[in-house]
Amino acid sequence: MTPIHIGTLPLATNLFLAPLAGYTTLPFRWCMREVGGFGLATTELVHARSLLEKNRRAFELIETRPEDSPLSVQLFGPVAEEVRDAAVWLEEQGADTVDINMGCPVEKVVKIGAGAAMLKDPKKTGAFVRTVTRAVKIPVTVKTRLGWDQTQLDAPVLAPILEDVGVAALTIHGRTRAEAFSGSVDLNGIRAVVESVRTMPVFGNGDVCDTATAKRMLEETGCAGLVIGRGALANPWVFQHIQAGFLGHPAPPEPSLGTRVAFMTRHFERAVQQRGEKLACTQFRKTIDWYAKFFGPCRPLRLAMKELSSRQHYYDLVGQFLAYRNQHPLSRRENHPAVNAMPA
Ligand SMILES: Cc1cc2nc3c(=O)[nH]c(=O)nc-3n(C[C@H](O)[C@H](O)[C@H](O)COP(=O)(O)O)c2cc1C
């Protein structure tokens, strides 16, 4: 994979960790940085006004640490001046880059005119974004979808407008707002966006989970890089595997179950450290579903983790699971991660 610049920001590779609200928290990003293979990570989406009001939750979302670099902070909000002021404040705090969310399909976000609702009026959105790009020196990027629905595929209209107002890079999730996460990603739709701009890098996003899907996305869309979300939640080694595939190296050995569980445990411990035992347990009741995709048969663990109540409980459940699996090794087929692979 090739090094790339987003505006003035040099990045080691053109593979990126996508923002995933509720998942790409600092504890997860920190563990991902240790595995590596991606050039940039992005925070979960943060409401610009909450940040300006110094809301505790917004501050938690932008928490970082030296290893968690380079990092983009993703902002959303319906008021251009608030997004501008939040971007200026983030620049003063040393943020590498800010991203504006124009893809979130959630009703409470679109009903205030933010997220994917910004796709509906490309001209107005261009003026909104210009307010932000004019105010900061750090690169401003945008992440969006193909359009509101199949009758309004406006991303190829919006993209050149964003390029003209100084957006440094654009990520396109190849689905519409109406599709949310259903069906499969539309590579022709992403290609139309790539072809609509002059030099602004456009990154393809959606359903990339291994070398084959990464190659297909790059070849069929002509995009300048790949943004991977759920594929990394299920398999934190996905970036390394794609890198090896592109370099023509043999695929690195699949991490053992023990290595995967150790990653999950580091993630859990850091979540406990950062947010406290109670919140970490609540988060892990859903996080387990992603790790489980590469654990092979693990239904009892997955179900028991839905009731996760304490740190001790976590170690009891994981200990029982590993003891069971040590006594009952899997057949070769069951052990193959593709059995449990994406999409969810
Ligand atoms: C649980 C979840 C949370 C997400 N949160 C965000 C977010 O905060 N900001 C954003 O731009 N996209 C968000 N997305 C969209 C992803 O970044 C990405 O565009 C989408 O999942 C498709 O890529 P993937 O197939 O690689 O996951 C979220 C998706 C999921 C499933």
How would you explain this protein's 3D organization?
This protein has 344 residues and is of the alpha/beta class. It contains 15 helices and 10 strands. It has helices at 26-35, 48-52, 56-61, 80-92, 107-110, 122-133, 155-164, 187-194, 211-221, 230-234, 238-247, 257-275, 277-292, 299-305, 311-327; strands at 4-6, 9-11, 15-17, 40-47, 71-76, 97-102, 140-145, 169-173, 202-205, 225-228. Helix 12 packs antiparallel against helix 13. Residues 336-344 have low confidence and may be disordered. Flavin mononucleotide binds next to strand 4 and helix 10.
Arithmetic mean pLDDT: 95
The number of helical runs is 15
For the largest beta sheet, what order do the strands appear in spatially? 3-4-5-6-7-8-9-10
Q: Please tell me the total number of domains.
A: 2
> What structural category arises from helix and sheet content?
alpha/beta
What would you report as the Rg, rounded to the nearest angstrom?
A: 20 Å
Q: What percent strand?
A: 5-15%
Topology-level CATH name of the largest domain: TIM Barrel
Relevant terms:
344 residues, alpha/beta, TIM Barrel, two-stranded antiparallel sheet, 10 strands, disordered C terminus, binds flavin mononucleotide
